[in-house]
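RETRY 2/3 - previous attempt timed out on the joint model. Re-submitting the same 700-residue input unchanged.
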Amino acid sequence: MTALLVLAVLATLLGGTVLAALMDRAALPLAALLTRQRVETEAPDRMNRDLSSAWYLALAAIGLSVVPFAPGLALIDSPVGIVIWGSCEALVVVTVFLHGWSPNAPFPLIGAYRYAAIGLPIMLPSMFVLIAAALPAESLSLIDIVESQREIWNVLRQPLGLPLFLVVALAMTLRGPMDYADAADIATGTSAEESGAARALWQVARLAMLVSISAIAATVFLGGPLGPVLPGPVWLWLKTAALMALTVWIGNRVARTTPDRMLTILWVVLLPLSFLGLIIAGVMAL
Amino acid sequence: MAMTHLVRWAARAPAPVYAAIGPGRQAEVERLLTRPGLNRAKTPRDAAILLVAGDLPSSSLDALNRLHDQLPRPRTTLRWLDGDQEAIAHRITTALRALCDGAAGEDDRLPDTPANEWKGIGPHGQGGKGMMGGTPYGRPMAMTGKDVRDGLQLDRYTTRVGPFAPMLPPGLVLEVTLQGDVICEASVQAAPFAQPAEADAPALCAARMLRLLGLDAAADRVIRGRPLRAAWVTGAVPRGLARINDTDARDRLSAWLRSRTVTVAPPDLAALLPGSEWSEAMLILASLPPSALIRAARATEAA
Amino acid sequence: MQAVIVILGWTAFAVVLARALQPAANSTAPQAAPFLGGGTPDMHAWQRFHFRPYSMSLLFIAFEMEMMFMYPWAVVFVSEGIKALAEMGMFLAILSVGILYGWREGIFRWQ
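RETRY 2/3 succeeded.
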């Protein structure tokens, strides 16, 4: 069973990444990157440079491992699945920071610190909406959260949860309005000095994280593998793909404001909204 | 086997072009790079083809050589002198295909000698005293200084940006001193290249700001005269940025999006940029029509 | 235990994959210069970076600690009922005053 689940996670990650690359129209450019030289900057931090993409990829795989592919069936069957995912999110911030720090170049460095400023507070609404989803399940396990949605999905009884979590998804996948690490005004920020296969791998890791966070969102808010007729994994895949498409669509269409304004919006608008979401979830769960 | 597939895919991918735009060619290049088969690279590290549009003044040739060498191999330089869009688009795709077919590409133009010789003292070559300063790899470390916002004594980083920086108008060389991502001092080393009135076209001006807001697809659509299809566009630009003649950056963007030409008096760049955060500063520069920006930069340069 | 093995396994897998896919980086001297649109830097980019929202990060720590109390709270919420809701409501209200105070003091701005 474990071997089957490992395969399921791997296949989901691989297939999802290809799908995400097609949604971004990035498949051919990514292949093209592999044919070019990988340049090295002056006196870089080689270890962090080589490993940051690997960490990002690993976090996507670990995050996906707590997702149940069928009711009661996840690779990491942990009573604290939400906490494991939360630590993945926190480590994404560290990973993106290291990616920007390692080349010893100005634009990546600005992107790294900018992302730290936005990435820290974005974790608060993220954990508030996930904890809100844990209330009716009386458990922090994603398996129990799926079970608690047999009658009604969380997206309906906690209406603020999914919209807030999509903002988190944009930030965790460095996309559109929340892409403070790889922005255009700093020449693609943390990846500004990367070429060839290294650049391609960082983009692949971003896309893999999109798969992973969409699968988490599908599990927490859309009932994950629950659904009629079709088997559980198929429902999970369909819901994940739909959320991926939604995230890509929003990312392409919403403008990015300056980082200090976004910081204020995060604390003064999004965080109180997530409080409100928690209160709504609490009242509904009683 | 896998390699041949990869090469075939690479040849079919949109050509990644980094544009070094010369005098008078800004509008043409911006229109060219919205074509479907071309991809506007935001950094030379992502490009295979360096497009040099127009006759560059000899003062910017060193910068062009530095830029050229920063492209990963294999790479090709194409010079675009006439205004024929079809012809250059064809030349770009042919050049990309040649690179994918194993053409050797171009060698470095600058000598392969480190700009900064290793001359360190101590186990890491840091060469300084204690934790401060020093010149590892012959390049000094940043040192502390006063800040414009909160007066904390942290490191000041001085650099020249341009003339081919993707976020700055072509030709503009800024010498900036940053503390964190806030500009403490800025001076114009070289004014932007002269551009014809076409560069002030509302669609092109709006597209420059849209790219800074992360809306590349919307920018391409606006240049092609299609509807914008994006949300929170003007709202994302902070109020009060570069207020000149009672219009700020947000007002100018919304005027451009309504296809109105904007004319502003050339501002004093040396007073406008210091104190702004980097992304605000880039929005300020993009919110000025090229004609006004060129006059403003020339006045600052002369002073 | 399985969780630890899976986490270590994925990490090792990703590191091996990254090693295998990324060839060794190499550059000539002019290629290695940091990209500044043709410009040249006076110094190394690594620095004691002025992280502007530093005062925000203090408020963030307060909320991160608060999150730890919420994990056990979420599990017992339904069994404790309205009492748990009231308690967390009060706790969040107090923390919200902190946000308002910080907002007034301008800690969310780039200092």
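The first helix of chain B runs from residue 2 to 12. Closing ticket.
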